[in-house]
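Hey,

The postdoc asked me to send both predictions to you directly instead of through the lab channel. I've kept everything plain text so nothing gets mangled by the mail client. Protein one:
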Amino acid sequence: MAIKDFQKKSFLRSSENINATYSFTEIVTTTGYIEAYGTKTATYSLSTFQIYPRDYSEVGTEATGAATKVLDLDFDIIINKPLTLLGKAVINVPMILMNSNVNNVTGHLVAKLRKYSGGVESEIASSGNGQTVTGNNSRTQLVECLEITVPITIFKKGDYLRVTIEAWVDGHAASTVSIEILYDPIDRRTLVPKSGGTWNILLTTSLKAYIPVRIDF
């Protein structure tokens, strides 16, 4: 029977009493995606639902002029069924970069994918440095797109998948430089940034991760 583009098909695996449904794209690429939002309730986490968070952003500052990591945020989700990661992960991160004076400063983000198992954290892969962002006292706002090449990585039930976002301020003349990362699952665009000013309503405030999962037929 011919498979039509993007038509859903159901397959009953002999070893499982469930129907697994896949799109045409998932079938031909043998890859599905976990789509999850970075959020903060009692702790930072990844949520597959658009929940109202307890908080919506974090600000890191640097005032000495040194190149410094100002934020290091871990967003976790527990894995309740064995799975294998493989492919290209994409992380979209809303951010603001600003300086306390008119001089231009630069910074960048880094995304890392990690596995937390049995009390041990291991790094799977990193995006490396994202694009160099330039800002001053007028504030630069954007949604960064970070890509991670994910090797074959097996998770067992009870392991945690962790997305880490780092914000770095590059070397600069001494002044107060801030980077703010936003993570609002419900995408409220009228939120007031903690670093000051107003948010560009054309940009999302949601931090979203697309994690590739290998599908074995």
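Protein two:
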Amino acid sequence: MLLTTFLLGALALLPAARATPAPSDYQTPAGANPWTYVENFDTFATGQPLHGQGGWTGWNVSGETNYKIQTYLGSKVAEVAITTHSTITRDLPAPLTRGAFKVVMGKSTSADGRTDVGIMLKDSNGSGRVYARLGGDGHISIYDHTIGTYRPILRDYTAGTLYEVNIEFDQVLQPNKYRARAKAKGASAEGPWSPWTLVNNGVYERLTTLVFDTDWNGGALDVKGYFDFVGPADVSLEPSPGSPEGLRYPLTQIARTDFPTLPKVNASVTREIGTNSRSHVRICPGVGIAARSSNRFPNDNRYPAESR
């Protein structure tokens, strides 16, 4: 009885179970980020079309003329006059099947019901797979093939404000899916991640091309879109198998390299019990808990001199 009592007392010395995993309980799903393309438009000629600079090519006439380098909110941007469907493209340095990137973009109006501005990734078949846009409905959204329409990731964006949209994709861990989150440029708090979302048409091969894209549904509107930055993003942290947040990915798809370190505990407690005995409990790193009860009266055979 004494041994059980002191074992329970010793367990109380151990750290309480965490409701939220510690950093050591997380891992990066995609490992090193293979996304390398970075553009902030600072070296481009102001007032000139984006078409023909930095590898950008207008897909149609409006794509060649509507995107121009301007200064907006103290930064050089690719500004587009949204007067029709305008598309401009640039090949990525290498085809990708996984990566994490961000784009900073904005629109001069919000819920105008007529204009969209956004980005797209095309695959090696030339088809658009990954879409994120500031829509005429007033929301920042990504396209979800499962529901056949756009899924909001940030509602009620503010006209004229630049927003950072982070996008991740990983063909091994999340085949044919991507996810995104958005926040105002410079905001400290990150927005929540969307669910992993099926790409347009449900499947992709290697993603090869970055696209700026606008849409216009008619009407005499003076609307502009802004692209301020494109570049790699920090790969987000996912809970590892067995963490309190549960298993996100199949065990067979994860190579664990950052096993959490066990608490470094070396504590001992000695307590008096009544007037004729004492017990000693020691917590030993990598071993467990040892407990010893000793009798103050060695000649009393009712109790063993020592028990473990």
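Summary for protein two, as requested: Helices lie at 2-11, 61-65.

Thanks,
C.
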